[in-house]
Amino acid sequence: MFRISRRLDYGVQLMIALAAEEENRPIPTAALAEKLEIPLPFLHQIAHTLMQSGLIKASPGPRGGLRLSQPAETISLMRISETLEGPICLNPCLECGEECPRQTTCTAMPIWDHLQDLIVKYLDSVHLDALLAQPESAKKIFDITEMAGKLKLN
């Protein structure tokens, strides 16, 4: 089953919420947890991973909290995904660190390879700033058919 983990889903929601802060002021973690309905300990775990990768910064103190460490337009969904979940690998045969004894004879591998390539290119093309767009333009961002055409993968 293909599935986005709760960790990645919450991580993307957290990053969008931080990108929405126009002046990039720190937002308290308790306020983020309440607004996004993410358990505070889980938000802290996700934030810690995002801080280690340099995507966000934490400011201590009563006026502290979390904020982006770089502009929203430079942070792709792919980078967030790889930070929280590691490389995308739909099948172990797709150069994800394992050798497949059937690699030369497998008839399904080209399908999984193509799908993985589509996913990676799509996630790499969507940045946080685009996710803050108005609903009309956001709909266009998520039109996978249009995106596949732009990526010349159909």
Major sheet characteristics? 2 strands, antiparallel
Q: What is the total domain count?
A: 1
Q: Strand order, biggest sheet?
A: 1-2
H and E string: HHHEEHHHHH
Précis, in short:
The chain is mainly alpha-helical and 154 residues long. It has 8 helices and 2 strands; from the N terminus they run αααββααααα. The protein starts with 5 loop residues before the first helix and ends with a helix.
Strands, helices and their partners?
Blueprint: H1 6-19, H2 29-36, H3 40-52, E1 56-59, E2 65-68, H4 77-85, H5 109-125, H6 128-131, H7 135-141, H8 144-150
Antiparallel strand pairs: 1-2
Description:
- The chain has 154 residues and is mainly alpha-helical.
- The protein has a single domain, classed as Winged helix-like DNA-binding domain superfamily/Winged helix DNA-binding domain (Arc Repressor Mutant, subunit A, Orthogonal Bundle), CATH 1.10.10.
- The chain is built from 8 helices and 2 strands; from the N terminus they run αααββααααα.
- The protein has helices at residues 6-19, 29-36, 40-52, 77-85, 109-125, 128-131, 135-141, 144-150; strands at 56-59, 65-68.
- A hairpin with a 5-residue loop joins β1 (56-59) and β2.
- α1 (6-19) packs across α3 (40-52), α1 (6-19) crosses α4 and α4 crosses α5 (109-125).
- The longest helix has 17 residues, at 109-125.
- The protein is elongated and about 60 Å long.
